[in-house]
């Protein structure tokens, strides 16, 4: 059977090879005349992509077939738990805790982690229900395509890829910092300093690039091998974390917690918005659903279990750091190593640095695994060229997508300081998590042909109240110290959520595992994510706006037309197949009748 790309499903290809029509095989790009016609049809095509929804079975069955080969199902719940812990612990706690504690929240950074952890756990619930129902490599991109349509899914996809590129770049640069500490050098001694260049971009980091290449090579070889490496490294990392907590409490000085919140509640939530970066990684575990042996059982255990453990560990580690050293003296590059050095435990900084390196190595591994699977599934829809969606027949891994994401991440890591990156990363992450919560509300309360017009109107009104109230609280928090805004907006949020709970019947219930207390927990997830978005600085939103404009430009010129053509080709193929089956059924009936007449 032929795919839309015109190739055979069973054709065996190795990664990083090129064939005709690997990049722009669609009808719209076969000539300049076709492309001009496609551009003239942009408004109608855009309307079609906005209104059309994918189906669960399309994502689970048809999309996987477009990769040529299937990914190997080798992971169980323990693999997912260790992947989850390895993916998350190491990124935030060893990268930006020092910066946020020193300049934004003080010792109250522990409360920032609590707030971020609650929001992340609510998002984990959403991801878990979706991953069980739609176990594919596309993660949130696939979920949004099913519930909110291609356009929303594409905009989210662009931010997902940005999130992973920035996350990988940030962690790899911090990897250099801790490696320098382990070698008893200052991090900048291992970087190339370009004179007369903005320090945010002029500290070139070749070691970060080498680390990324080495880890990506392992990820391309085998998912199971990556899992085994992650498990061993994470166990060693956990032993180091236990050491840090015990040794830190031995050297604790409670006076360092005074003042506890020097920057006030505003500082706590501002830090919380940035520290959401620390929980980046669990969504990468959701992309491994396609490689999980029993998604219905393993994914809930893996996602919820790893996030619960992670939140507890983050709170303990951040509290320990602030007990060992005054927040004013915390080093922003390697906070834990320098803190032990400050109390006379010079030897301990090497253990901490080694543990941090192990933690960040596993985070980079899972980041590379996750981002390549996202790009693979996005490419299956042709929103990105289908070449990126190829799965290598020997390794069972998406080699092309891995190399592409490695290249982008390496370029950013080589040039850019993580202070510039962290806030922009949090905007993308919070936006995606909010959209996933909205998509799950749509999945539960709206179904074409089931939900009545009256209930559709009620659902939209309630959703507008939830959104409006959440945005109102976020804006008021960012611009005022009063309480009148909360007095107005919070009751509106309760009204919207309560109206949805009491006035709109559910159109669909989960088959295996579902988020509890719907719609309250989903509405709370939307509220917290929007609230935290209001705590991020203006410059980050300007950078985010530029990125959004670039995404819109690409979608209007390329992504829209490629995905439109592919969808229409698939519909035509499905209709042909349906007609063939129908004709075969008619032939069988006619043959039966003829046989019956002959017998008579």
UniProtKB/TrEMBL annotation:
Localization of this protein: Membrane
Domain (Cationic amino acid transporter C-terminal): residue spans on this chain: 513-563
Keyword Membrane: yes
Keywords noted in UniProt: Amino-acid transport, Membrane, Transmembrane, Transmembrane helix, Transport
InterPro entries the record matches: AA/rel_permease1, CAT_C
GO biological process: one example: amino acid transport
Major localisation: membrane
The protein, known as: Cationic amino acid transporter C-terminal domain-containing protein
